[in-house]
Automatic annotation (TrEMBL):
This is Matrin-type domain-containing protein. Residues 362-384 have a biased composition (Acidic residues). PROSITE patterns: ZF_MATRIN. It comes from Anisodus tanguticus. Residues 358-384 are annotated as: Disordered.
Length: 510
């Protein structure tokens, strides 16, 4: 017996209501680990997508473009071609139901399908992360970093410095942004950040975020206030001009340059002050000459009458307000917005890289094994919710430690260390132990001070520097002592220090 259209409508409303209750129930549970948080977010996102799909189907049913819903309601009311007969329609429907169950005696009516929906709360969606991303805790920008340091717009810097630079494309000189290589780099960077953001924050509406960024960008672009592109294309109050920028580094022959088309070649030649006439091949050959030959060394026959020789070579030195330039500026705006949303992740990534640089190979292996053991223990945990209103630390049995033990060890006491970047340590034990850990050792190494026992309990940078100066003075390091180290020779060739020589001379012995 096929379901009627009204029954499909009722079942769809029930499905939407069940999914909404599951979303509320899932979000009421606080995930204990980052992995559980990701699973929860993706489960909720999947259920929301199911709700949206079902709602679209309901909208189509209620619009009733084919009139099937209207006909079904009329049939339930007993309206037929011969007239209206409610009882006849009722008994016909009852006969159809009895006939169905007579032919299918084993058919059962499912009263409750709650268990099927409850299984959705136990799903663990598969989320792909690289080894460097650490289940969404860190960014993996090594490929983009290599492209940056090997490009014309980049500079040879360390990976940690790149993590501070990549989120600020507006600081790159505008002349270096006119190449196709820079635009492709921005597109790859934006693509990776979007992919990472969708995996780690699936409940965020990225389309709405980008829509707001685009609207704000259009307003700022019109007013010439886009960061890094202020007053773009306007110099001395003159109106902006459109010029085509062609990066000749991407073309090895004049034939390949012909692909850009005759009009772009003509505009590029005009911007360089060269002749714009001839066939497309002649234009390409004339423009290709500027790749390896400075303009001042070109034959005057290639220049248009009354033109001046530009200072740059191979790239149009003209204001750029074309569609390509605007697209580059919009890509930069989107990247800055994503970097603002991923600010905590960027900080964690930088700290993780610095941590790895301070660890030895044996320490890195030990930490990797510890992470594997922790991942296995997390996967074996029960799904029971642990009541922990005081946010007490977990003990060896996976349960909160007793409150009296928490107070005994002073785990509610916070210690901050300025040398560790104002990092907080909870409890006296953790505070004393951190002086031998990588973070404090790295901070002391940056200050140029050896991390010895003399500096235990020193957490202020100023106090550490003063103590190091006193130690150097006490040990006589870098201190000139003329009374003991300055030497004098008498007439007989005897050597004395300044103090002894002065005393003998004062007594008239020498």
């Amino acid at each position: 017996m096929s379901s009627t259209l009204l029954e499909v409508t009722r079942a769809s409303h029930e499905e939407v209501e069940r999914l909404e209750r599951l979303v509320v129930k899932d979000l009421q549970t606080e995930p204990p680990t980052n992995k559980d948080r990701l699973h929860q977010s993706h489960r909720v996102r999947n259920m929301i997508e199911q709700i949206i799909d079902t709602t679209h189907k309901l909208v189509d049913v209620y619009e009733d473009k084919d009139g099937a819903r209207k006909d079904e309601i009329a049939a339930l009311g007993g309206q037929t071609a011969t007239g209206t007969n409610v009882f006849s329609a009722f008994y016909d429907r009852l006969k159809e139901i009895r006939e169905y169950h007579r032919r299918h005696p084993a058919a059962r009516v499912i009263i409750d399908t709650g268990d099927e929906y409850e299984q959705l709360l136990k799903e663990e969606p598969q989320i792909e992360f690289s080894g460097e991303e650490g289940s969404g805790r860190y960014l993996d920008l090594h490929e983009l970093f290599n492209e940056y340091i090997n490009s014309k717009f980049g500079e040879p810097i360390e990976y940690t410095a790149y993590l501070d630079v990549f989120s600020q494309p507006q600081k790159i000189p505008r002349k270096a942004k006119s190449t196709r290589q820079y635009q492709e780099y921005l597109q790859k960077l934006l693509e990776y950040l979007v992919y990472f953001f969708e995996r780690t924050e699936p409940l965020q509406d990225l389309d709405r975020i980008f829509s707001k960024v685009t609207s704000e960008f259009e307003e700022e672009w019109t007013m010439g206030k886009v960061e890094g592109w202020e007053n773009n294309g306007q110099e001395n109050g003159s109106a902006p001009e459109n010029h085509t920028v062609i990066d000749l580094d991407y073309y090895s022959t004049a034939e390949e340059l012909m692909v850009v088309g005759p009009e772009k070649l003509k505009e590029a030649l005009r911007a360089l002050g060269l002749k714009t006439g001839g066939t497309i091949q002649q234009r390409a050959e004339r423009l290709f000459l500027t790749k390896n030959t400075p303009l001042e060394k070109l034959d005057r026959k290639h220049f248009a009458k009354g033109s001046r020789k530009p200072e740059q070579n191979g790239v149009v030195a003209a204001p750029q307000v074309g569609d390509d330039v605007k697209e580059i500026a919009l890509l930069e705006a989107k990247i800055r917005k994503l970097c603002d949303l991923l600010d905590e992740t960027i900080v964690r990534t930088r700290e993780n890289v610095e941590k790895k640089q301070a660890l030895t190979y044996e320490e890195m292996e030990a930490e990797r094994e510890e992470d594997d053991v922790q991942a296995e223990s997390e996967s074996d945990e029960d799904d029971q919710q642990i009541y922990n209103p005081l946010k007490l630390p977990m003990g060896w049995d996976g349960k909160p430690i007793p409150y009296w033990l928490y107070k005994l060890h002073g785990l509610g006491q916070e210690f901050k260390c300025e040398i560790c970047g104002n990092h907080s340590y909870w409890g006296r034990r953790a505070y004393e132990r951190h002086f031998k850990e990588w973070r404090h050792q790295h901070g002391m190494r940056c200050l140029g001070i050896p991390n010895t026992k003399n500096f235990n309990e020193i957490t202020s940078i100023e106090e550490a520097k003063l103590l190091w100066e006193r130690i150097q003075e006490r040990q006589g390091v870098n201190k000139w002592r003329p009374d003991l180290e300055e030497e004098y020779e008498d007439q007989e060739g005897n050597i004395y220090n300044k103090k002894t020589y002065t005393d003998l001379q004062r007594q008239g012995l020498i």
